[in-house]
Amino acid sequence: MAVVAVAVTVVYMLWLCWDELRSEVSKLIVQACEEFGFFKVINHGIPHDVITRMEQQGYEFFAKPESVKQQVGPANPYGYGSKNIGLKGDIGEVEYLILQTNPLSIDHKSKTIFSSK
Description:
The protein is of the alpha+beta class. The protein has helices spanning about 20-35, 50-65, 65-70, 110-115; strands at about 10, 40, 80-85, 90-100. The protein has two domains: about 1-45, no CATH class; about 45-115, no CATH class. Helix content is about 40%, strand content about 20%. It is globular and about 45 Å long.
């Protein structure tokens, strides 16, 4: 078995110089997505407790029955979706939830589903 090391692109958010670096950071994110499919953002200024709550709500959302998740609506552009994936016989399914980051724009249905138990 061969072990391959892959360097993950790390995007360092330097808010003091954001205007000057925005174009460069955007290109770095696009390149990371094209080459690896993901990237890591550090120094983003989001408090750890907010990240923890978001992760917990994500776990809770994806544990809900399919019929409940479908209530969020199709990802157009925001919402829930799932699709079958796989190449060369390795078949699976991926689920995704695309959210608006502006709290004032979050759909009422999404709030209802996330707050329901």
